Amino acid sequence: MKRFLLAALIAVTAGQTQALSCMPPDIARTFNWANAAEESYLVLNGAFSFDAPARTRGGQLDPETVSMRAGFEGSYLGAAGFVPAPTLDVTLTFVCLGPWCGSMESDGEDVLVFAQQTQDGYVVEIDPCFSKLFEPSQDNIDRVESCIRGESCAEIPF
Prior knowledge:
By secondary structure, the chain is an alpha+beta fold. The protein contains three helices and eight strands; from the N terminus they run H-H-E-E-E-E-E-E-E-E-H. It has a five-stranded mixed β-barrel with strand order 1-2-4-7-6.
């Protein structure tokens, strides 16, 4: 009986103590993933303007996803590096996995993102691991430009 109670207690608390496990973000890894995907992706570097989404989470087994329209101003990655982009309408999709949610500043701060090109326009998925969203540091810009030129696109090991 004691073993049964101990097993039940472990089973109940195990779900509560699980943590989100993310691979460290790496722009070359994301570039290689996007380059191999069936879908088409565009790398954007600039600012998004949008109203931050209200958060009303569902239960842990029923994560919430919130999509909203945003304006984008900045540049996109082409074969010659980043070039000015026209103002774009983009759908931002904020994904929650249990209690962990993706987020982005809505104050116009520059960010480097991978946007999926769909029939309905560009979609940026922002997950809790920030796998498609990066700081626009010079190192990230240099590395992703090297990737697009077919030069070194080595991932940083964990």
